[in-house]
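Example (one chain per record):
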Amino acid sequence: QVTLVESGGGLVQAGDSLRLSCAVSGRTDYVAAMAWFRQSAGKEREFVSGISQNGGYTDVAESVKGRFFVSRNNAKNEMYLEIDILKPEDTAVYYCAGRGRDDPSQSEEDYTTWGQGTQVTVSS
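Predicted structure:
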C-alpha cells in the first residue's frame, strides 16, 4: 500500500510564492511517475504538472507554464510544486497523485494513488 500526503497549502496573497510538498510512504516502489492536479470550487479536477520517476522529464499545463515548477527528491520520497506569482484563480485544492508506470500522464484516470489534498487560497 502507498500513502500520499500533501502539505504546504494555506492562505496567501496574490503575487506570493508557495511550495507544496507530497510525502510518499509505504510501498514507495509502487510509485514511478507522479503528478499534481487541482480542483477549484464548481470545476472539474485538472492536471497541473507531472514528473517522471528520475525527475528527468516534467510536464506542465499551458495555463500555468512559467509559474509552476515540479520537482522530486527520491531519497526523501517527496515531490514538490513551486508556485510563483500566485493569482486568485490559483485558489483550489491541490492533489498529488502517483502511478506505477513511469509516464506522467495528464489524465487523472491513469493515476492509482491519491493524496487527500491541500487547500490553497489566494487573496487579491
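Caption: The two ends are 40 Å apart (CA to CA).
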